[in-house]
Fold each of these.
Amino acid sequence: MISLEPRAEPSKLMGYAAPVIALVVTLLAGLVLFALLKVPVGEAFYAFFIDPISSVYGLSELGVKAAPLIMIAVALSIGYRANVWNIGAEGQLILGGICGGAVALYFYEVEGWFVLPLMIFAGILGGMLWAAIPALLKTRFNANEILTSLMLTYIAALLLSMLVHGPLRDPDGFNFPESRLFHAAATLPIILEGTRLHIGALVALLLVVVGWVLLSRTLLGFALKVNGQAPRAGLYAGFTQNRLIWFSLLFCGAAAGCAGLFEVAGPIGQLLPTISPGYGFTAIIVAFLGRLHPVGIVFAGLVMALSYLGGESAQISLNLPVAVTGVFQGMLLFFLLAADVLINYRVVWRSKAVKA
Amino acid sequence: MSIDSNMLVMIGLTVISAATPLVFAAIGELVTEKSGVLNLGVEGMMLAGAVSGFAVAHVSGSALLGVLAGIFAGMLLALIFAFLTLNLRSSQVATGLALTIFGVGLSALMGQPLIGIAYEGLPDYHIPVLADLPVIGPLLFQHNLLVYGSIALVLAVSLFLKYTRPGLILRAVGDSPGSAHALGYPVIRVRYLATLFGGACAGLAGCYLSMAYAPMWVENMSAGRGWIALALVVFATWQPGRLLFGAYLFGGITILQLHAQAIGINVPSQLMSMLPYIATIVVLVIISRDRGRIRKNAPASIGQAFHPTK
């Protein structure tokens, strides 16, 4: 009979191994899934995991998708370490896109150097504003931030839809629900000629460094960890929970808002009713898969970015629904959570007789 | 424009049909939470129930089989959650989120061939004599069986928790798993059953959406109702009676957008669609600000893993 035996202390090795185990098992489960869908397994695998990254352009697209995931996940991981469960990053991303996009449209006639910085500022502010709501409701009224931040995501999506159907709609756009295309001055510089890879990728890496310094080299980072693992100890040490809630949410709002602005000012180039394929939610998986560690998150972000590209590629070449991506992402998180048991427990076989 | 009795009946009917899925999903989650388990995967289980119920009903032509399939699908997802959190002691919050992400993706994948297919909906059942009463008859006694079932379920859960021995054990497990374990009650088994019950109810809620409310399959059709159901449990301070009231209140808010234009309110439809989400935040704030009341009513061990050896 299989049973779990607690380890004397958490296994470091398993901490690193669990994500790898989860990935391998997800791939195997993917084989089964493809077989069930009656698609040729070999072709599906090639389309999903190899084809998207077998060219320079493909690799650049990986960067385009990974950038927002990494930006948001680094910020989320800081809150999750302190048990602040912001799951509304998607809404904060949308607000960043709306606010930054509105600035671009306001200065539609102007082609100044200041337009893009102003858009970034507005995007960050928009995301922070949206994240400030759950922070305020949590600290003042004790309202569960999981539910409030998620409800705000639905509201943000409807707000975006309302705006592109109304005030921000392209006046010459034949009533299509989309804004005007942004001018060159309002779009992000490309860092690799001929691709869509924009400076967001560099910002994401910068944020990884910032996140790492914050967590491992500052008192604030220490307070976040202590309050997450031992709230009472944190209390005795004088770390106030409210300040950490505010910090985690505002930081994440800023990162998500910036990521949202980068989407509309980068790959999209205008405001549309949908500006993200769920980056804010996928970033939650990225944060966990990356062990809530900035460096781990870089790898996890690339893996999840591949799941998006693979989904698109499989849709084109094999006519598979894009939803396959969501199934893969969900499975990966399940397997990761399951594999995590190995950090604190060892699996032992023992006969019933011994137990008795 | 005058509002006559026909219109009142019509509004009442839409409130009931909007409230019913919330009743199912929330009462299931209430039982789960009473045992000390917080399952944030309601949305995912609902969608799994919706797509499975619709698919089986469509293929087999039997509404009953469809409903059973929906319940089964919800329970299957709940089983994954229970195994991960109860046996492998994973984080309930993270696992619940995974369940929702998985459920959204899986239902979209399974539902691909079902898009655009029409379904006649569940048949209404007219309760003899009562259904013929003016106004009250069409409003209260001409529904499909799921509507009656949702009310009966709330009543049953209420009585179960308050007056039966297993109900008492369930509450004990949620409030003090250590003591319950010491007294010899199987904490993990109780939590398994409560979680599966929550999954079954969420599956039913999904069935109602795809087989009676819509009735068709649309990707992501639950549109946050699973999350609203979670908020309803807090709103109800874990009491079934209040939960029923809350679900109908939210049903009313949800259908405001349908009737706003008829009454002559002219605002963008998106603004009206925001109302249930805004209302959810507002009620959460109102209820949660009273920390004492939450602490008194919430199951004491909610969200915490149980280690029998400790």
Note: Chain B touches chain A through 46 residues (CB under 8 Å).
Amino acid sequence: MQEERFPGHKLLPYLLILPSALVIIIFLVIPFAQTIFESFFQATPFGTHKVFVGIANYIQLFEDMDYLHSVIITLIFSAFVIFVGLTISILIAMLANQKIKGIGFYQIALIWTYALSPAVAGTIWAMMFAPATGIMPYIISKLTNGYALNWMTNSSAALFIVSAAATWKMLGYNIVFFIAGLQNIPQELLESASVDGAGPWSSFFRIKFPMLSPTVTFLLFVNMLYAFFQVFGLIDIMTKGGPGNGTQILVYKLYQDGFVNLKTGFASAQSLVIFVAIAILALFQLRIATKRAVYER
Amino acid sequence: MVKRRGHKLITHILLIVIVLITAFPVLFALITSTLSFKDAFVFPPIMIPGGHFISNAVEAWNRVNMGRLFLNSLFISIVVAVVKITLSLMAAFAFTHFKFVGRNLLFPMSMITQMLPLPVRIIPTFELMNLFHWINTYYALTVPFFASTTGILLFRQFFLTIPRDLSDAARVDGVKPMRYFFQVIVPISRTNISALFVIEFIFMWSQYLWPLVVINSANMRVIQIGLKMLLASEQIAPEWNIIMAGTIIAMLFPLLVLIIFRKSFSQGIAMQTDK
């Protein structure tokens, strides 16, 4: 598959990949190695120098109730964003992938939230849910005869609203990929299934869903990265991790410890734990992707 | 036939309802941005736009020096998108058109970048910025983002579909590889380039954590941090009309980019999923 189209050029290919390779080495690989290194050190109170502490930072992680709480919050939050988000998106994508008039309009009208940043989404949802003055507490209070929703004091409500806002922001992105995935399913396959008497349900579960599985795997990974990291702006704008650490996901705790409390060693240990989690999932995703490739060959 | 038409009508109705529900937060933000401070707190909420958008936008603009933040965001988003696309095109060209010892490095490279998002290396990367004296500079906001294996993989996949005859013909005519790259490869990659531009532009425009960490001077802030400052500048009650006007300004540009390039964007995504 990969052939040599311009033989005899020894230096040129290296020059072409050099800039990318340099950026990856200087800003990704070396800092990551440094993260591992620093996770075994602690800064002295005045930050003048760093002392080797062995695995003390890691022990501290497992003794820190705030950290363990943060792990659980992150799991709940990302499970919500991934499963609720992907389910809604796949349903909407199937509805929007039909031969009807104005489908071009519907598709752009469904994917545009992709262009919003997490911070913009957070600001808008913070306004809608503002205690006492927002539209959502008003509607909820009307519907329930006066229940006053205040997510600035109720941490479960805060986690739910933050999760919903994050899911909403990601809908556009997920729908784009599901629509593209659905359009790549060969039409003949669906037609022959329908000739064979497959109804809409069995054609979904027997054909569409299996054919979409690479898209689903890809989106699982992307949504996980989103829920782990990119929502930082949304959390910072909406709750700053509160109330009472109720929405303090791992990346927020990492920021707090690393850049506000200046415990760089402790924060580096947190980085490394997050890395292990991602690496496992990335390898898992890779395994599925390569398995499939082998199968197709 | 009747059943089918009914089915289509239901699809239309469902789609319209879904579009309205998903758009509601932004529509509501848009309405709020046009109200006066007093009208933004009326119950039940006012659902008809008022006439104060310009004055709210001007107030938001002045309050957090938004003009400067806007230009900063625009500058770093365009620079990162353009450099990333250029580097990706170059690397993908190397990986598909030449035989060299490091050719099998593509795969580990893409795994590494996927597994090392900023937060897992944020503290040493920040220290590196200190070392380079890059804190509060455009370098810190752009250079660490320059490598993109997503881009390399996207272009690689496309380049592999280019018929070999094309490069063979060029070679027979004595065309040098780089001339072939600029005159053939780059022009026929237009669709993928625009798709990647949309993705990278929006990605950079949305950056929040990194600018928060490496920037502390008012002139170097980006627009996302401007939103944080608008919220923090609130007086007794949050002035949602002004905050929303600022939010609308902050979302305008990436939306425009997505709408302008929507055709190539969807095509590019379709190509990416078609593995």
Note: Chain B has 14 helices and no strands.
Amino acid sequence: MNPSIPPSTAEYGGDEVSAIVLDPGFSTTRAGFAGEDTPKSLIPTYYGRYSSDGQSKLVFGDDIFVTPRPGLSIHNPMGRDGIVEDWDMAEKVWEYAFTSRLTGPKPGNPLQNGLNDVPEGELSTEMEGVETEEKLLADSPLLMSEPGWNPTKSREKTIELAMEKWGTPAFYLARNGVLSAFAAGKASALVIDIGASNISVTPVHDGMILKRGVQHSPLGGDYISSQIRALFKSNAPQPITITPHYLISSKTAVDAGQPPQAKYKTFAPDRAPDASYRTLLEERTLSEFKECVVQVWPGPNKLSATGPNGVSNEELAKSSPGRPFEFPDGYNQVFGVDRYKVVESLFDAKAAIPDPESAFPAPTPAQTVPELIKNALNGVDVDIRPHLLANVVVTGASSLLYGFTDRLNQELMQMFPGPRVRISAPGNTAERKFGSWIGGSILASLGTFHQMWISKKEFDEHGPNIVEKRCK
Amino acid sequence: MPPFRDEHILIIAPGSQVTLAQLGLPESFTPARFRFPTRMFPAEKKGEYEPYKIRERRQEVPVSNGNGTDAPKEDVEMKDAESAQQDGAVKTENEPSEQPENAQKTEGQDANGEEKQGTTTEIFYEEDVTSDEGAVYPIQSGRIVDWPCFFALLTHVYNTMSPPFHTPIMLISEPAWSARDRETITQFVFEKFKTPAFCLMDSALAVCYGYGTSTATVVDVGKDKVNVTAVTDFLVNEHGRGIALEGCGGDYMTDRIVELLGPKGFTREMCEQLKRSNITELLPPGTPLPGAAATARQGANPAASASTGTKDGNAPNENIPRGPGEGTQTGGEGNGEADEDEGVLDVAAIVSGNTSEFLANREKEKAEKASTKKGATDQSGKPLRLPNSKKEKASFQFEEYVRIEPEKDTPNGPGRYMRQSREIEVGVERFLAATPKQNSGDRLTGGLLEDIATQIHHTILAVPDATKRSELWDSLIVVGNGSKIKGFTQSLLGTITQKYILSPSATMFTSEIPSNFSTPLPTGGTNTPAPSGQAGPMNHPAGHGVNPLLVAATHANNPMPGTPSMDPAMSHHRSTGHSQTPTSVKTLRPPEYFPEWKEQSNTNAPGAATTGGPGAPSGGHGMEEAVFLGAQVASKVVFVIDQGVSKGFMSRVEYNENGPSAIHEYTM
């Protein structure tokens, strides 16, 4: 090509638009374009509220972890069971998920965004009266996920929000269990989702959830955090208190088990962040603890059981080297068998560390993972049970706990010695964390999915109840 | 498609303050050849922009035989000739086309109540290169806030470069740009510039290319924001990325100095220049301030220590020029003395010639002069040379442009400016630029560095691949012109060490070492364990607070005598999961095979008088704009070597087929 010859004037004329996939969770909200492999936008569902100059202000996104603000308090629009409680705020959080990384703030007037040549004198007068403000998602179809137990009212509210507030041209609401199964490349599966506020077991058959089999319980990541807190309280030689980084100006190295020597920061009482802010940041340290220290007893059998050669599993666990952890204030300690105990109650309700102050009541046996699976399978047709057991999909960030899938495998083999049990758990962290989002990304980019969308026109004709008919 | 050639590649790196651009890749990669201020001025017609402030000037012109436009032309040329003699760098032939064409005849208008007969008022438009009055900054905190203006800037840059048609474009994108923003830019570039190939590259990734590393934590300190990005295996980790962290850039430091010195009569401009001067420095945490405040620790009570610096009061608060600073006289037109001419900036000369080159030369001359002068005074005045960080007081040159009113005999000459400079002395405030602000607004900030350190911690912790985190802590890259201030990187490392570095007993060895090793003795070597938190003057803060036993065990190949059990295999003992980070924090060394970048580091190295001091910077200087070096490396790889095989850029054909949203598939 000769550099001095101007290129041909052929220009892109199509309007390829990719759908936006929104996967709202209790702890994080994932959003991105369909067809991509990870969500571009990952924000905490938590948001901060503080007042400055007499005005109430809101903070979204990662900033709440980084910047303490005067009187900042932390809230979550979702309820513990994964159902939206505060719709106004959920809308704002989700909008932030779109606008921060995907769409940007509301699109500007096309006449002034510099992309279009406006000939002199044309268009300028007659366009002035026209409504120019576009809605947030006016040109992107939206696929959203929901938990399997989402009530009708909440589903209708969701489609109203998407259609009326965001102006999306097409919408679909999919169960996150189904999406996780799709992400694993399966149309039928038993999906075990270990989230922050919930664990759920969802039987999926031919891309539909079997509603009677859906089970969920609150023993998620936050429950494990509460168990770790209980452990810290009863720690010997002294109880451990977590002081988040924002309250510390510098720390000094101390030996293991020695009291911390750190310089603390103080805030004036009228400017100090709220207690909920501290809890949020303590949770950050706890998740680091979960990543580095906590381990699931891999089995076989429970931690409290005795192994085949007469040595109790707990003794066995004790003999494995402990894991050190340093807290933000410099306190550090090695955690031995305790690191197994904090998660044991996910499988064995009796093993829970008692803590009367915890927000979580002591777990019942029916809430543990093995029981949930048993109940889920009991709720579905006998014929498809073996098929489901051969396609167990593990997803959710808390399932990344070290040794979790090993233990799950052991438990399943014990409960169902007959049929073939096969667990599919992606080793890739992102795939495990964003399972349901990735499934949504796949689904929304399929050509055959196009007929499934609920269009704006259909919504206008049938009202919000159409979501019950179309998104099953 | 024929291959792209080095000399055709156009690279543009927009920033909030400066947009870097270059056409063609040189043999050895150089700092950006063009630096455009990222601002435009609204033109007379709404929606259009001009690169410089256009001033309107009316003047009376005697009407002589109806040929009104010729008269000013002559005048301007005469003016030019005169200034050409002074500066010797003026191209007169550009001049006439520039002004009289714009002139409008407005006959019969009476401006000054002078005689109507025989004169008309001419309106001249002249470009005022030094003014930023009414400027529109299209990028703020990394975000594009004014699209028409941003596009006008891109067009201006493109036109200035005037590349041939077969020019691939590499545009460095800010992390704050949303996916839709990138699509909009892609559409604009393809449809306006008709480029055959376009690559939109993330700035953090470009820095990694510049440093030749695949994994790094890039801290980009801009004007009023900071971006912190963890890059692993050439992939940008979008989750947990610190995007446009507000109130953390270079402006923070200026604001802080204004806060400290404002009551003493310093203007913001003075504080800005003080910040840029070589006497302003960030001392590592825990370093005592020089002079009377020797006991006061940095950050302990900044307000108190700040007040100790300038007790005698006469120095900074009066705007009296100290000493016979050069250019303090308003040099008359014909004086011809070299010293005085220096202060006068001939706008016409700049406008007609190559602006940046001209200014650069000028700066250079000045700098040379200043340094020789300064050296002289330093030697005569202070026989004992202390490093800057030990001096209680120091002075810097404050320079400002003053517009000279047109003189009576040449009323139609282009605007002239005079550079005035004077010495201003400041106390220890100059070390407190990063200390917590008193008025921090909505943020409960612990100071600039602490906020950045918090963000780094958050970002690295959010990297899903936990095994990479340790490497990320050990490969910190601090870039951006906000980090130019002396000691910035060292202080940042010190802050991280203070707050986040794990004590050795919390790392992997505690559990395995027999109890008699839990408090190891110093090995008598170089690494005497100092109490942590004292980052001190040493160049490797990573060496601090880390148990020598641990260092030896992890870094040396041979096990230490007497500890036979500690072979490196021990570190793999914990096959489960991973351990906590960071156990150490280090900065990456910039590449050494780009001489032009090294050279720049020399000119940028602050004050020769202070080198060798404990706070002396250790590398990193000159690499603030490493993003541009990386952009050149990447352009070479993407456009020339790879030729699009691995989808490094989007070609025009692909654009025509798939539209702007396909840009996301080109993973740069």
Note: The domain at 20-108+131-179+434-470 of chain A is CATH 3.30.420.40 (Nucleotidyltransferase; domain 5).
Amino acid sequence: MLKALIGRELLNNLMTFRFAAVLLITLLLVVVNTAVLIQDYEQRLESYNNAVKMHHQELRNSKTYSTAYLFVDRAPNPLSIFNVGLDKRLGNLTGIYHGFVPTLWDAQMHGTDNPFIAFFSSIDIVFVFEVILSLMGLIFAYDAIAGERERGTLRLVLAQPIRRGQILLAKYISAMACLLVPLILSLLFALLLLTRSIPLSTDDFLRIAGIVFTSFAYLSLFYLIGLLISVATRRTGTALMLAMFVWGFLILVYPNLIRATVNPSADVQERTKTAKNQIQQIVDEYERERKKFLENKSVIGDASQFIEAVSLYTDAHVDSVTLSPYLENMSLISEIPPDFEKYVPIAKKYYSFVEPLATNAADKAWLVQKQALDDIFVRQAVMDRALLKLSPVGIYDAATQAWAGTDLLGLRDFFDATRRYRRVVIDYLYATDAFSSREWFVADKGPVDWSTLPRFTFERRDVGTNAKRALPDLFLLLICNLVLFMGIVLIFIRSEV
Amino acid sequence: MNFLSPRLSDLQLITYNQQQKMIWHIAKRELYDNLNSLRFALATVLLLALMLTNAVVYLREHPARTQAYHNAAADAVKALEARSTSLYRLATEGPGGLHKIPSPLRFCAEGDEVFLPKHADGRNYIRDIANLTAVWRMGYPQETPSLHNIRPDFTTLDWAFIVSYVLSFVAILFTFDTISGELERGTLRLTLANSVPRHTVLIGKFLGAFISVNMPFAIAVLMNLLLISTSDAVQLNAGAWGRLGILYAIVILYASLFIALGLLISAAVRESGVSLVVLLLIWVSFVVFMPNTLASIGSRISVPIAYVEFWNQRIRLSDEARAAYQDKYGGSQTKPPVHVLGEYVSKEAEEHERYNEAYLKEQIMQGKRARAITRISPAAIVQRLFESFAGTGFERHLQFIENVQRYAREYREFVVDTDRADPASLHVVGIREGMSQKPVSPEAIPKFKDTLSLNRDFNTAATDLLLLVLFLVVLMSGAYLAFIRLEI
């Protein structure tokens, strides 16, 4: 009996105009946007490759250790085509230096960053689905029960020995089977375009499978919302209006409303100030020790003469936004003075004393910084996300971002890697005795050999980690589905025909 | 023949009056139907909630914004007047920060205001060139606030959003069944069985839908304006109210456009269910997707280099200038003559500024291209129109940049003229020994004043307005044709 019901419903759904229209528009939107997004990705990849090449060249051109600035670039994530998340927005270029700990907020941007086009948000595949799938689900569901009730066919069906739950199940299964056609078909087209120009790994395909499954749960949730409305109302007209306004509210209004009304907490400034003071203290202490060393006449001699001879440039400041300390010491020697050799052993002593000090100060500041940055930047975003999850769009967006690895955690992985790389560089400097070497500050005996320096590599975390991050939201979606379905069955069983 | 003509005109008069009556009759019936419907209640609640949120958020944020502007502008003027101790300082240190005045109508359209820089800099921010102080130049700082922002993406709930997204959506929901619904119920046959011309029915239906769509919006707008105008924090002047009037007229045009579209599809499709699906798909493509997708296609035509690269190139440029100076004069013991030095520093500043402006122009070009292509979508047109009349967003920023460039010229002329007025001076701007040593009165220095001109806004908006009217006319005549040819 169930089979017969499903067959009838399937035929009913497939032969409608709305099915053809929805299929067409989904295909069109996904294909056009994928083509645009692939171009965009390729452009970003090219800019990334150029940047890597340039930074490598720059490093090889640095003649001394102290004036070298290492740059690390973040490659664009190919899955940003599905959900761009924070991939395009946050910085993708950060410096590595022993007197500075790179954070997400210090990063700069290579690639396009024109403020005059920042207004136009990039439309990724998940956004297309967010809008279209939800609309589709509601359009297919609003008259499922209410329509049959109006036409009187519901009575006929119920006259047969069928349980009411079975009718709902048949409707659900057949509608989902129909709705999956545009979803799967458009994704296949997108993948066809994608694999032609971007190489994807097995892990990537698994991630995409995760995104597809999440999309399915999202679609089903909206179908069930529509079904609930259809069961609860007696007329299709009312059901339709309710469904449309629910859609408008959940998709259009609520996500924007919640962001507008939630005020960025005022104590952020206070928090920034206290953290900055703490870090400033660490920096001040470093400066005190450094100056004390410079005043040590038995080692340095006359400090001002020394500074001039090695043309010492120092900087120690705390960035007021990102709270990062910048502790720089370098010799900008353009011309070697005649009595330079006299100062070489002193400079060696100075640098081998100061640079470990700067490294430690930066490390110490990082402990304070980590906490403060979480309070200043992250807490608000986490709260926003939590509130957004009251609408299915928020859950769907968060889950797909986690699958794609373009969420905050995915980006943090990268910055954790940059900090690990900083450690590697520092270890390398210690291992080669760089701080106390002549090449630290002067290149007259030949430039630094950078070839043995370990290169920075970053691998995205494996798909298991993505799954771990995405599963809570996915389960939330599935739970909503189940609860809604049970609610619908209950209402339908108790309703009069 | 002669005695017939008055009668004919009488007849025409009567039918004309009857027609008018009939139109109102149909409109009224339509209106009553709508007023009692669920959609009217839901639309009113939705629009009201959005408009009130808009007002509350605006009143919370705007005073701080204006305060910040006034503080920054006052500080800039103070700093400028502090430089009046010598003409040389004025010539090298420049006018300082030039700030953009925030528009009081930001609640109407926020546009890309968040992403745009709030000031331009006329100062001397490069290292000295071999013991010579460099001359000031205009710089256009780039703010990338999104670089620090990890909060989820969202659209501001300004009037532009409420109108282009929500009101158009509401208009579709009000009109999708006006003709197809009556066709299905069979009431259209009844109406047309009377001797009513079809266009009368169509006009009546249009009017009815128009009033019932505009009523919730008008209520919401009035509540919004009531809140804003009663607050002490914001004062709207006559100009601002005039602009609000223009904005309302645009809203009417835009709402009519979607009502006409609804009538057209409703008449062409005959089934309400199908008509809604078609309308929703058109709406989704034109309102939600097209502006962004087209803009990202359009912005790909010419892509300027990244700001980081621009910054590095500029550093290289000034390093080259410094090296060239070293090569030429670095070795010699005697200082080169004053006019050589003067020419050198002013040329360096000029080239630097030209470079800044060329980059800015490239960026603007990309912005313009991205926007031009989105004009296919009425939602994008309305967004632009709202921005131009609210004095926010891209076009407004272009005006600001023009103001800044005009002021920079004025400032330079002032320095040169003041120097010329002193016969004791050598008239070499940018070098201490070459300039007038007389003190300058702080009042005489021209101050930057950012202005907004409605004339210019009309100019930039004219094309968009015309396009909107064109769309409306096409859709109206489409609806007329579809309804006339409708078989019942």
Note: The beta strands of chain B are 96-99, 119-123, 137-139.
